[in-house]
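quick one before i forget lol
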Amino acid sequence: MLARVIAVVRILIGIGLLALGIMQLMNPSFLYGGLLLDLSERGRPYGLYQRYVVGRYVELHQEFFAYAVACGEILVGAGFLAGALVSLASLGGAFLLLNFGMAVSAGRPLVMALHVAGALVFLALGRFGAGLTWGVDGWLAQRINAVFILFPLRFSLPKYFTFEE
């Protein structure tokens, strides 16, 4: 039962991220200057993040980062939806979410706390082996060593997972 609940959560998050990434990729105003506009409408970045990340990289290469964000959301969403390499996808999703948090949460600790909580949910899904039930990871785990599929958040199959499901 727990494995199925985890799988449903994974699939719903995957659908949401995939849809969001596709909408961003199809929106020229987001791709060409809209990322920074979107971030500035949501809040302001922390000082060091503004100075060392936004100021040095994102502002200078806005189009690249807009495409990277949209494609990253699509990849994480597709990985979650298909249950394929969920451990790596969850790391990518946590990275994206923490970066968004740093970019919009200065002076608003609750907003940052929500981003951290979301990142922890991503990491928990990867740690629980969320792709093993109703996902490609479960199919692959039957055929190759589970370490290759569950790395880096797990090194063995969880006890609740059985191949009969």
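fyi The helical segments are 2-25, 28-42, 47-58, 62-82, 86-104, 109-127, 136-141, 146-150.
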